[in-house]
């Protein structure tokens, strides 16, 4: 879609690409040097709300750059989007209303590509990433367009994809009682469900589509099944999103991913052959995101990144993140 707006000037960023005829991400900047203040930004978004939301759908992601946004609270209510509470294994600090830090785990740990709250029945339709503190070095935040992952997987492993899609997926993960910030996925069940009462935690877990089993050490093992491998969202061009967390949970110490009937994920000769080409240490296991196109967005103070659910981000822990239904 051709860019047309008097309220914004189209910019560029490192790693920007064209996919299926659309620029990803779309970079929006102040139309004039004196229009970069917060008041001008909020006015422009309010006056062009429908157009802006359409740009998020058309381009999958919009990067607002060059505006003086100092804290997440300043930007929170402008769209009137419905609030949604974070539920997931990442240890996060609550900042304000729907705003959370991205992850309080060690900076040395890799955050795998994922959809936000992919396991929960009600996941956010939009995610905003806000850079409050620029990193002292590095700061790259890669993104992958999820529908391209599905397209590539269907090209390379069509039989495995359709078999998993037909049978569905089953996940398990273990959550300790209290938060453990030594792990990227160390959020305790008390914090996750907002209660220390086991019966209430079970009720809230069931409402979210998961079953809990209590372990002798006080931890809880959650089971989620069946879950789909891909998903098509209404009003999102009919694209088939790679909407799962197999990579993040399969074969890990405190989690697992398998077929919904309890059998292992399929591994064909072609899958093993392709995986060995990509990584010498794969031992036949699939590395689903290797060789896929990624976008690197370098964090700057005040940077705002608005995403629809077609993207798999790997946000830095220096980001503030907030969720909308």
Automatic annotation (TrEMBL):
GO MF annotation: an example: oxidoreductase activity
Signal sequence, start to end: none
Domain TauD/TfdA-like span(s) in chain numbering: 34-180
Region (Disordered): 254-282
Alphabetically ordered keywords of this record: Oxidoreductase
InterPro entries hit by this protein: AlphaKG_dependent_hydroxylases, TauD-like_sf, TauD/TfdA-like
Annotated Pfam families: TauD
Record-given protein name: TauD/TfdA-like domain-containing protein
Taxonomic superkingdom: Eukaryota
Source organism: Castanea mollissima (Chinese chestnut)
